[in-house]
Amino acid sequence: MRTLLHPRPGLRRRRGTAALAATTAVVIGLTGGPPVASADPTGGAAGQAWTATTDGPNQYPGITVDADVPIRMSDGVVLRASVFRPADASGTAVDAELPTIFNVTPYTRLVPALADAASANPVLGQALEQLGAADLSGTPFDGLTELTGGLGGGLLRTFGVNRNLVQNGYVQVVVDVRGTGYSEGVWDVLGAREQQDTVEVFDWARSQPWSDGRFGMAGVSYSAINSLHAADKRPQGLKAIFPVEPSEDLAREIVATGGAVGAGFMPAWLVAVNGLKFAPIDSLLRGDFDPQWLAERLADPAVMFPQMFDALLDGGGDAANDGAFYDVRNADIERIQVPTFVTGGWHDIFGRGESRIFDRLQLPAGQKQLLMGNGYHLNPGLGHGKEGAPPRLDVLERAWFDKWLKGIDNGIDRYGPATLYQQGGGWITASQFPRAGAEYQRLYLNGTPSGSAPHALVDGSLATAAPATASTHSVAPGLRAACSRDTAQGTAGFGAILGSACTQDARFAEAEALTFTTGPVTEATEISGPIAVHLLTTTDAPDGFWSVTVNDVAPDGRSTVVTNGALLSSRSTLDESKSVKDASGAYTVPVADLHADTKHAVTPGVPLVLDIGLNGTEVKLAPGHRLRVDVAAASFPRYLPMLPDLEATGLKPQRLLIDPANPSFVNVPVVGNAGW
């Protein structure tokens, strides 16, 4: 079925765009070529040119869509796709071979179509942009500001159909992965067959009259992971990818972080996708449905639920432990050879992996880009397009594909290559992440009160010297972390609706935590990279669970989480092939070995050393601020130990031992001078 999509009335221009376009033209005229992107998060003059290009007049006035295109796979399964092509003023698809952008999604093509319709509607689109720009700080609804901030940053276009790309000389193909949407088959959940499908979709596209054989891949979350999978297969014609919030290591990031299930995300996500795969039931009501489609849906209506229940209820099954199940589903990053622009967020559910993808890519600077914001999974693009911030996501996406699929020298390869939101500061540009010059420094936990956390279960100190006095500090599981940034992160951002009193201030949760805090820093102190925490512990039960955050504490006492991590005591064995140590032999990146055969028994009362890896972060402590480590015995719903492990903990108190002979410490990557 082919439909003409009328363009949104009027040009999609922000305030001042006409003047910006004129300025850009002058810059280009003076330099004799495209502006060079500077070491500036905004992209400088080049960034202004990218925005002017995106918001300027379109090459083609309209779009046509073939809404239900069958693509037969080699095993006979038929996938369904929507093909969006530029159209002339009469609504006829242009007769030209064009580069093609693919979005391969499990959320049914209806969801991207709704996102496109919302952004394209002149009333609703403007309302969404205004909602994204709204500042409700200081009100009971300030959580909405944090949650919806990505709407004005190009999220809808990047997630859905980017009609700006289509109206400027691209074809966009949105494909339902097998077993979802209108596609036949059983959902393979990022498995080998699903990955092969993407390669075969490229094979199909090369034979289409509208294709010039040059391909790009885009999309958010699952679609972003699919783009990494496609790129590591090195298919013919794939020239560049623009993954927004992809995963590097599904087990460690959200499914079984530190050995505990991401209960705030995984069950709800599986319910959503399994429900959405029945959304095309409209064809059944019309009487033109595919009987095979319906039979396959009914044969396996709840894909992955058995694995989830196995993991939650008995700690077994494919999803509970690292191994072959995840080996197939984690992309082989080092095999990727095409230019890759990775966008993520420090508090995204995949926040651990996005910077690691950038680091693992074997590509020169410029051909690989990293953009890390301060948002959650639901709001990539938070703050984009504002003064001092990167351009909107749709602007960057257009510039990226114009460069690598059309050969336009627009300077995007000279952007970044690491554009980072510095928590406590603002947007910065770096040559790498962690930033050059970052050196690890130990801060030791001790029981001496810091005087900064009277509200906490324990108010201890952090210092550059090892403790001189031994002490023991007990902590028990509680539920206060339901009001925390951990909850916002673990629910993909939905928890931000609780407001800044939870997401921007950990003091409520710290009433059930051991806190260890430095004195006020005497000068600005910058942290860049993953953080490691080394703890000497004991438990009263055959297992224990430890949740750790590192926080920026303001002079008024506000305690803001900047990164986090967790570990079951029985998962203390590290994967040495993936872990990293500094010159002193202390871990900087401890990676828990989550294979089933490395889980071990814990003897109650016997000291056990835990090295807990916290996600990479970028932080600036202003003078007068403090650094704090929070240690808790629970953080639900971000982490939920599997039932056998939960039973093993007995929900009993756990103890952190401060021992001068074997001190606990946090290993912090500091750039420049530290003001401890």
Tell me about this structure.
- By secondary structure, the chain is an alpha+beta fold.
- The protein is built from 21 helices and 27 strands.
- The strands form 4 sheets. The chain has an 11-stranded mixed β-sheet, sandwiched between helices. Strands 14, 15, 16, 17, 18, 19, 20, 23, 24, 26 and 27 form an 11-stranded mixed β-sheet that branches.
- α1 (17-31) crosses α2, α2 crosses α17 (393-406) and α8 packs across α9.
- It is globular.
Mean pLDDT: 91
Q: What's the N-to-C terminus distance?
A: 66 Å
Oligomer: single chain
Helix/strand-derived category reads alpha+beta
Secondary structure: number of strands = 27
Tell me the β content. Answer: 25-35%
How would the global form be characterised?
A: globular
Radius of gyration of CA atoms, rounded to a whole number: 25 Å
Total helix count?
A: 21
User: Approximately how much helix is present in the residues?
Assistant: 25-40%
Strand order of the largest sheet: 1-2-3-5-4-6-7-10-11-12-13
Give start-end ranges of low-pLDDT stretches. 1-35
Largest sheet: 11 strands, mixed
